[in-house]
Design a protein that fits this description.
Layout (H helix, E strand, L loop, with lengths): L1 H33 L1 H4 L6
Length: about 45
């Protein structure tokens, strides 16, 4: 039973990571294309 839970956990984490990665790419890529000047200068801190 432990193995089944472990496999389910690994699958859930993998799918979650893939979904998060795809979401970040889809969300960040168009923004970078539309407003490159805003991203180029880093905020001085």
């Amino acid at each position: 039973m432990k193995q089944v839970l472990l496999i389910a956990l690994v699958v859930a984490l993998t799918v979650g990571a893939m979904a998060a990665g795809a979401g970040i790419y889809k969300w960040a890529a168009p923004e970078r294309v539309i407003v490159p000047p805003t991203i180029v200068p880093p905020t001085p801190e």
